[in-house]
Structures are given as structure tokens and as C-alpha cells.
Input
Amino acid sequence: MKSFEHMSPTSVQEAVKMLSVGNARVIAGGTDLLGIMKDGLLPTDRVVDLKAIPGLDKIREESGELRIGALARIGDLASSALVQQKAPALAAAAFAVASPQIRNAGTLGGNLAQKVRCWYYRDADRADCYKRNGSYCYAIFGQSELHALFDGAACFAVTPSDTAIALSALAARIVVAGPKGEREVGVDDFFIGPAVDYMREVALAADEIIVDVRIPSTWSAQPSVFLKAAPRKAIDFARGSVGAAVIGSPVIQKARISLGAVAPTPKRATASEAFLEGKRLDAATIAKAAELATEGAKPLANNAYKIRLTQGLVRQALTRLAS
Amino acid sequence: MNEVQRQASIDTQPAETDAVSRRSLVTGGLAAVGAVAVGVAALGRAANVAAAQQPLAKQVVSADPTLCVGCLACEVNCSTWHASVGRSAEPRIRILATPAVALRTEVASYLPTRAGFSPATCKQCPTPWCLPNCPTDGLRIDPATGNRYINEAECIACGKCEVDCPVEWQGTWARNGGAKISSKRVVYDPALNVYAKCDLCIGREGGPVCVERCPVNLAIQSGYIKSANLCLELVASTEEQWKKLV
Ligand SMILES: Cc1cc2nc3c(=O)[nH]c(=O)nc-3n(C[C@H](O)[C@H](O)[C@H](O)COP(=O)(O)OP(=O)(O)OC[C@H]3O[C@@H](n4cnc5c(N)ncnc54)[C@H](O)[C@@H]3O)c2cc1C
Ligand code: SF4
Ligand code: SF4
Ligand code: SF4
Ligand code: SF4
Output
């Protein structure tokens, strides 16, 4: 690995200042970044370690909202009684992440900001794919099992984060700190697709850090679920996933459904959401909502299986919410 | 010169010297074609006559929809490169959703479900209708290549070029859920408050970035897909060719 400078700020402001030089990167648990650096995927001259900043790992209820610090560990989210009660989908998503070791080291902020898992991107020998500032996408005429059904544009890699899908269903907001102070951004705007910028997955400037994640009271404590399909349960990234939350029973007033592993960002199933409003979750309604979820999918050569897989997950998720 | 400097030199180049713009048409061009004196109101139409005498663009981007898989690499790269040299990031090429278009078997055998896309961009018209009514030196013709382009530094966003361009996008855009930000091949960029159109990547060393990076082109060039022509191709701009452009 190329040598780099390691810094340990003790406040958010200090961390932001340290990020203002070129090729400086935040490190939290290091479960993603260290691999990236070892393979030389992102040039890194300085790592700014957030772990010494006190108070960034709190899981608490504040102003009626469930609030989670960016340094909260994935494992702590999974086992937190508060998260299980206020945001069942998020607890389930955290539990579905990787292995116990990774959940113990990995943080929520790092899970949201991790880089894609496209196998071409992660192959150190393919230095010329778009995500590595190159000029080609290997997935288009290559092996596209893992790739996007929706919203591909030059790059077809999918969002790898499980927690993002649950947070999208829960209408979370992300609090970001930068040189000018803090700003809040809705989770659906936080993730950006390759049509906007294929080099970045999230709307973070180089000198910004995620400090907090907030789930509004409207959606916390509502029934919510997260389901994931992966070849080897618990240690693989999703081939499909769904986060779903509803307000109103037995007649649904509002539903939020977010799909994972099918688009470069969490993909809201807006057609299904609109269809569900004012309806009861009976079998026919669930079947129709599941079908609508993948409307407009444009598979590549090897990923059409994700259509039925995703429909199945949506059907299962809504069936659980019905009972 | 690096790319940014090269671009800066293009954007600061005065039009009076040799690039054709509306101002040079009014001062010299009209006399040259022997137009009678015209009032201000008729200037546009008269200038149009002059524009018709302008040399053809040497080249234009031509697309073959039967090879396009709608990956949007052309749109994204057009946008990224122009933004990198300080010009508008609005893609100047757009993929239209045209469900009736079938893919050629050579491509369909790899990507059967990705048919129905038609790339389209500015046609570098023999008569550049967009040019004569530009009140500044924004719309220009490059003397060396005939390239009809907008010097965005001079564009005051009056929108006359968009009104005058007769070439509409046929159908909806594949991106943005079909919503179009402009009906014509000159598009408005609200972020920079300028109009943008295909400028054949003027100033870019490797030529048009969309042609260079279309993955179907790369697959054809590497022999992976057999085809006599490319998906996006720079071809000679002629009256005949103009009629064939999408
Ligand atoms: C074998 C394996 C299997 C995995 N399986 C899954 C899975 O099934 N589901 C899943 O969701 N994830 C999975 N992951 C990813 C894992 O969850 C992430 O690596 C982890 O959550 C990242 O957290 P971290 O704190 O270690 O981040 P780091 O590795 O420290 O950082 C990751 C990225 O986020 C940035 N970053 C970190 N914190 C912040 C912050 N506060 N603000 C701004 N940027 C920040 C870093 O700069 C870096 O780019 C897997 C990883 C491995 C290695
Ligand atoms: S999908 Fe994205 S990351 Fe993967 S090869 Fe294509 S451009 Fe690279
Ligand atoms: S902008 Fe319109 S009128 Fe002008 S050259 Fe292009 S297609 Fe023709
Ligand atoms: S030639 Fe350049 S400006 Fe024109 S559409 Fe292609 S990339 Fe865009
Ligand atoms: S890059 Fe080529 S294949 Fe992709 S959308 Fe553009 S023209 Fe079509």
C-alpha cells in the first residue's frame, strides 16, 4: 500500500479542516476504505480517522426523532432495543450486513458512503473503468449479474448499502458537516446516480462528513420491514433487497418502498407507493404493487433475474406488513 | 496548452477576425451576397439568406439507432467533458425513447432487452438557422472546420437560437422520465443561464468524446461486435447526409 498520513482529529471542525487538502479521506471502521487503498482504487495521501471524535456514535431519541450518530457501529444498530422498536427495518438491515466481525467494526456513516462492489471496479487490473476515472464500462458487454436494472448511465454499478435501503423507506435525513457548518439532506437526495457524477455515489464534497442520521417521527414507530436476498446469507451483498414502511391500518394512507441492488441509488418504487394509497393489503393488491415495483426495468445481459427476485421480495415485505 | 487553457483560448477568441457570427454577417456577409439594404426588423430573415451561403460543416455526429443500447455513456461523457472545461453540463446529445426501433442481431445477441433507443444531437445544418438572430457573437462558425458552435461566454440566454432551430427531438428523452428541458437541438441550461448545443467537442484533443467512448463503438472497434459502421460516427456533413440524420 502507498504510504499515507494518518490523522486523528478530536472534533468535527478539526476533521473538516484536515480534509481540505487533496486526496484526503475519512476513515471510520476501515472495513471498506482499507481494501480500497490496498488495491489502489482511490488515490489517498491522508486518512482522517473519526474514531477519536467523542459523541458521534450515539443512538438516541431527540425531538421525537430517532437519531443515530455516524460512528454508531452496524452491530450496535442491529441489537439496539430503541432501533428495533422505532425503526424495525433499519435494525433488520443492519443485521443483514456482512458478518459479525464487519458489523462490529463497520459504522453507519461508512456503510452509507462505501464504494460500489462492481467486480470490475474492484479488480485492481481494470484501471480504466468510468468509476476509476477511465473511459469504459466493462459491465455493458461483460458479466452483469450484479448490475443495475434502472438508471444506469455510463456506469451500471448498484448501491451496496443495506442500511441505505431501510433509511430510504423511513424517509431519513442525513446531517452533513462541512467548512460552512451543518446541512441536512433527505436520503433520496443524498445518493446520486452516475448521470449526475459517475465518480461519486453520495452528495458529499471532499471536505464533508456525515455526522448524524435522523428518522422523522412520522415514520419511526410505524410498521416497517427490510428483506434481502443474497446467495450466502449474511456474508454477501444483496442481489435484491426491499425496505418498506406504511402509515395507516387496515387502509393504507401512505407507503414508502425502496429497492436495493437494482439501481445505482436506493430506488423508490413510486408506482407501487401511489397504487397502495387508500387500499387494504389484500393478496390481489399486494401482487399488483409487487408487479408495479419493477415497471420500467431495463436489464443488461445477465441481470433480468432481479426483476422476479425483487417482485418476490416486495410481495413478501407487504405480506409481512399486512399481518 | 492543457485542455482548460485551450478552451479558454476558444472562448476568448474575438468573432470579428474570421469566425462567422451574426455580427460579421451583418457587417460584411450581407454585402457580400448582394443583399439590398434592410431594416432592423427584417434583419433576421436577410441574415438567414446570408447564413445559407456559409460553408458546410466538415463533419457531423451521425447515429445508428439499431446499434444503440441506451447506456447513456454518450450523454454522461458529453456532460462531464464540457463541465471539465467550464462549459454547460447539459448533455448535447440525447437518447430518445423510440420503442419501435429494433436492435441489430449482432448487438441483440448480447443485450436482447436493450432496444428502442435513438441518439440525436445537433445536425450541423447546411443552413444554420440558429445563427443569424443571435444578438451577440455567441453563435459562431469555426472557419477551419465549419463547426456551428456556441461560445457560451458570449451567450446572453435570449433563446433566439432555440426558437429558430427547426429541428425538434422526435419523441421523449430516455432519461428524466421522458421530460424534456427543451424541444429543440439547442438546449437551455438553467444552472449557467446559457444555451448549449453540440459543438463537436471543439478544443478537445481526441475529438468528440461521445464517439470515442460509446461502448458499442469500442466493442465494434475491438472486433467483439461485427458491424461495418459505428453506433456514433463522425461523418462528412453534406446536404444528403443532413436529410438522413435522426
Ligand atoms: C466481506 C464484506 C462483506 C460486506 N457485506 C455487506 C453487506 O452485506 N451489506 C452492506 O451494507 N455492506 C456490506 N459490507 C460493507 C460494510 O458494511 C462496510 O464496509 C462498512 O459498513 C463500512 O463502514 P466503515 O466504518 O468500516 O467504513 P470505512 O471503511 O471506514 O469507510 C468507508 C467509506 O466511507 C467513508 N466514510 C466513512 N465514514 C464517513 C463519515 N462519517 N462521513 C463521510 N464519509 C465517511 C470513507 O471515506 C470511505 O470512503 C461488506 C464489507 C465486506 C468487507
Ligand atoms: S458498472 Fe461502473 S464500476 Fe462497474 S465496470 Fe461499469 S463503470 Fe466500472
Ligand atoms: S442548432 Fe438546430 S439549426 Fe442550429 S445547426 Fe443545430 S440542428 Fe441546425
Ligand atoms: S460531439 Fe461532443 S458536444 Fe457533440 S454530442 Fe458528442 S460529446 Fe457532445
Ligand atoms: S453511448 Fe452509444 S450505445 Fe450508449 S446510449 Fe450513447 S449511442 Fe447508445
